[in-house]
């Protein structure tokens, strides 16, 4: 369906088909459909979907597809999509795929989204009645230029897809939702980058922008490094040359390599050729081949981000913030706040927080999961039942990873519960998600 371009149907005559050009597929009563897509794509971007799907037009080149029960809500949530496409075109050049349709999948879909060209696939958990949270759509849209138009040659060059897309996504968000919101996203990314480097402290190879992937299953070492270190690298170049020069460079990079697969070396050569002397200003080798976080990486400056961090540390010291400070918050702010509390709060603090702000009942899945992870890690058995309900309702891997890990680590009772939930929910999870949960459970056996 993603490639429905010149769809042509012809029914096979029931007598059997000498006239049928697809003799291999000919059978009485069968219908053959042809799909042609003019733009070349790598095989991992080929996808199709089958189901009881209805649609709503939400823009001149965008239609939302979904099950009948969620389609209207989805259409409202993604109403700002055309504005984002225009912002993207201004920054990165023409949108070359004609259509940008959105397909909302069932709850078992294991990812936030998948950037299939012409029709992006999305988890229904991104629908939260908060149009400011549409950055998942911004991310998939940004892939239209970086990732889909220019694709990494091998998985070792994955950062060319994801680092560039993280950068492009934040630029689009900055235009559509403002600088503060973009900075907030950068702040969360910075934190995530530091956490990931810590996670790989015994295997620093995978903190390299271009790691050696020989004999490695990419799913086993999947992390935010290509995303956030890639983002930091591009942001570092932007700071060095200034935004106008960098924007010109990016546009030229995209128009030069569009509809091709390239490697990191090709990017670096192109950078040196178009920004003469850059290698004397930035240690490009350290960025690409070095481990950890280079010294000239930077934590973003954001008033909101700093405020949230301060409030989180005040809370840990026993101070509850005044309501007026948090009433304006939406999902991203709450998430950052909860992430900054991390696990070293005690159960009574988690309960007090929930009593006041009803985070365990949030409509925003990100907030709800972040809270449940925090509370369970802090030792609150009160939330076991809510975690169980959630884990049987949704198959998005990020949530499974966070909650199964929290349960498996918190106590023997939590561990047993995690095993039982998984045994009962397993068949609703995608095979890749099953693998993730199984490795968590065996790691904490
Ligand atoms: Zn992506």
Automatic annotation (TrEMBL):
<feature type="binding site">
    <location>
        <position position="162"/>
    </location>
    <ligand>
        <name>Zn(2+)</name>
    </ligand>
</feature>
<keyword id="KW-0645">Protease</keyword>
<dbReference type="InterPro" id="IPR027268">
    <property type="entry name" value="Peptidase_M4/M1_CTD_sf"/>
</dbReference>
<keyword id="KW-0378">Hydrolase</keyword>
<dbReference type="GO" id="GO:0008270">
    <property type="term" value="F:zinc ion binding"/>
</dbReference>
<feature type="active site" description="Proton donor">
    <location>
        <position position="227"/>
    </location>
</feature>
<dbReference type="InterPro" id="IPR016024">
    <property type="entry name" value="ARM-type_fold"/>
</dbReference>
<dbReference type="InterPro" id="IPR014782">
    <property type="entry name" value="Peptidase_M1_dom"/>
</dbReference>
<dbReference type="InterPro" id="IPR038502">
    <property type="entry name" value="M1_LTA-4_hydro/amino_C_sf"/>
</dbReference>
<comment type="similarity">
    <text>Belongs to the peptidase M1 family.</text>
</comment>
<feature type="domain" description="Peptidase M1 leukotriene A4 hydrolase/aminopeptidase C-terminal">
    <location>
        <begin position="303"/>
        <end position="441"/>
    </location>
</feature>
<keyword id="KW-0862">Zinc</keyword>
<keyword id="KW-0963">Cytoplasm</keyword>
<protein>
    <submittedName>
        <fullName>Leukotriene A-4 hydrolase</fullName>
    </submittedName>
</protein>
<dbReference type="GO" id="GO:0006508">
    <property type="term" value="P:proteolysis"/>
</dbReference>
<dbReference type="InterPro" id="IPR015211">
    <property type="entry name" value="Peptidase_M1_C"/>
</dbReference>
<feature type="binding site">
    <location>
        <position position="143"/>
    </location>
    <ligand>
        <name>Zn(2+)</name>
    </ligand>
</feature>
<dbReference type="InterPro" id="IPR001930">
    <property type="entry name" value="Peptidase_M1"/>
</dbReference>
<dbReference type="GO" id="GO:0005829">
    <property type="term" value="C:cytosol"/>
</dbReference>
<dbReference type="Pfam" id="PF01433">
    <property type="entry name" value="Peptidase_M1"/>
</dbReference>
<dbReference type="Pfam" id="PF09127">
    <property type="entry name" value="Leuk-A4-hydro_C"/>
</dbReference>
<keyword id="KW-0479">Metal-binding</keyword>
<keyword id="KW-0482">Metalloprotease</keyword>
<dbReference type="GO" id="GO:0008237">
    <property type="term" value="F:metallopeptidase activity"/>
</dbReference>
<feature type="active site" description="Proton acceptor">
    <location>
        <position position="140"/>
    </location>
</feature>
<dbReference type="InterPro" id="IPR034015">
    <property type="entry name" value="M1_LTA4H"/>
</dbReference>
């Amino acid at each position: 369906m993603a490639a429905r371009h010149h769809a042509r149907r012809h029914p096979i005559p029931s007598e059997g088909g000498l006239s049928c050009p697809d003799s291999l597929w000919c059978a009485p009563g069968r219908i053959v459909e042809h799909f042609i897509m003019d733009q070349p794509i790598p095989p991992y971007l080929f996808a199709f979907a089958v189901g009881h799907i209805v649609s709503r037009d939400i823009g001149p080149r965008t239609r939302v597809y979904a099950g009948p029960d969620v389609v209207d809500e989805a259409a409202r949530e993604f109403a700002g999509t055309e504005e984002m496409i225009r912002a993207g075109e201004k920054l990165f050049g023409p949108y070359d795929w004609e259509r940008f349709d959105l397909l909302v999948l069932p709850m078992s879909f294991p990812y936030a989204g998948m950037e299939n060209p012409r029709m992006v696939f999305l988890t229904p958990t991104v629908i939260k009645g908060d149009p400011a949270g549409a950055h998942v759509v911004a991310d998939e849209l940004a892939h239209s230029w970086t990732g889909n138009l220019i694709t990494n040659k091998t998985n070792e060059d994955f950062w060319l897809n994801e680092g560039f897309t993280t950068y492009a996504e934040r630029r689009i968000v900055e235009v559509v939702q403002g600088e503060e919101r973009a900075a907030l996203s950068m702040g969360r990314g910075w934190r995530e980058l530091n956490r990931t480097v810590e996670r790989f402290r015994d295997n620093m190879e995978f903190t390299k922008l271009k790691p050696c992937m020989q004999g490695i299953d990419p799913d086993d070492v999947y992390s935010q490094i290509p995303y956030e270190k890639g983002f930091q690298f591009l942001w570092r170049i932007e700071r060095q040359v200034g935004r106008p020069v960098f924007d010109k460079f990016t546009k030229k990079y995209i128009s030069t390599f569009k509809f091709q697969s390239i490697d990191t070396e090709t990017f670096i050569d192109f950078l040196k050729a178009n920004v003469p002397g850059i290698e004397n200003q930035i240690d490009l080798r350290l960025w690409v081949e070095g481990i950890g976080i280079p010294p000239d990486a930077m934590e973003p400056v954001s008033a909101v981000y700093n405020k949230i961090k301060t409030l989180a540390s005040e809370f840990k010291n026993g101070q509850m913030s005044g309501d007026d400070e948090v009433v304006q918050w939406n999902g991203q702010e709450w998430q950052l706040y909860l992430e900054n509390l991390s696990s070293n709060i005690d159960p009574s603090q988690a309960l007090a927080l929930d009593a006041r702000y009803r985070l365990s009942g949030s409509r925003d899945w990100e907030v709800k999961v972040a809270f449940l992870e925090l509370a369970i890690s802090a030792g609150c058995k009160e939330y076991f039942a809510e975690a169980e309900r959630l884990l049987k309702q949704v198959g998005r891997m990020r949530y499974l990873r966070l909650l199964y890990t929290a349960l498996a680590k918190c106590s023997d009772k939590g561990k047993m519960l995690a095993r039982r939930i998984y045994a009962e929910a397993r068949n609703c999870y995608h095979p890749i998600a099953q693998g993730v949960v199984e490795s968590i459970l065996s790691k904490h056996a």
